[in-house]
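Record Histidine kinase, 389 aa.
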Amino acid sequence: MHIILEQLGTIASLERSLHAAMAAPGVRSLFVLACEENRYPLPALDALLRGLSVPVFGGLFPAILHGRKQLTIGSLVVGLPQETTPHVIHGLSDPAADYVARLERTLDDGLAGRTLLVLVDGLASRIVSFVEALFCLHGLEGNYLGGGAGSLSFQQQPCLITNAGLVADAGVVVALDAPSRVAVGLGWRPLHDDQTAACFSRHCPGPCKTPLKATEVQHNAIISLDWEPALEVYGNLVRCHAGEQLSRADVFAMAKSYPLGITRLDDGIIVRDPLYLTPDGHLLCVGEIPPGAFMEVLHGSKESLIQAAAAAAVQVRRPPASAPALCLVMDCISRVLFLGADFSRELDSLQIPDAPLVGACSIGEIANTGRRRVDFHNKACVVGILEQV
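=>
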């Protein structure tokens, strides 16, 4: 394995890094994590990727991670000793797509029991359906690790790196013959679990009702909660806890501190991050919401998030273990924005001896939680150890 970090963010510096990695002894595939702020000229980037003589996969993210550094300009090129086969599945927002059928046509039979790296366009509307189809076909014989690429502008654009160039509205699945361990750190809890919570609004009828039923949804857009407009219900609960009015113009700023969570009897909470209000007045989230799902408004502190990430890092260090080769982290960009300057503390907590850390600040995270299921998470810190890469 060979890791190259470049901090210029130019197409020329990326080209030098790619060719240097290919020239390193034993490198047979390239995994690329790059910053979307690099603003690569698309024709030049496509030509560069199509001209590579080895398989390449990766994405453009709001930021990348290397060791204890968070960078918004530059790229990481990881040269892998395995000749991988990146499988690209297009149409992750197609409302009629049968992803089980598409994956059956695209994937080979050799994925079972291996570590699957899964990258998606984080602004696609049917990521959950895609991840569930992948789980349906390949179960939990191996681990899953990955996340969503894309831009904080929330404008969907080409963001996934492939040998065919940069693509949008797609997913990339890569199987690695490498033992792995994966853990998920959250740190968010329902408002009603906060024993110190008080209603700051003198207009609140109280008590604030939770959980909420998602009475009308359309993929990743919440139209109504408890048969009332979603923004009104969500905004009232946030206002009651925070003592401030939810701005229709900046849902994402409020959601940094108050995400939504899908409650499940078997697996706790799956976080959903509201991004913005659609022209129709619907709450658009990162990831789908099942119709009829019960949801909570969540809250957390910087300390609870950092502690959850540290616990995830401890979990992947547990035996049995051989010498780890790589620590791969997908840490949600809205989580990073919530932590602010304290994100450096979260990064410190993720350092694992003899395992260089690489990763990205992603738009949604993909991981299996234990041996039960695979999920598309929001506002999570996903930590994976890839051994003997």
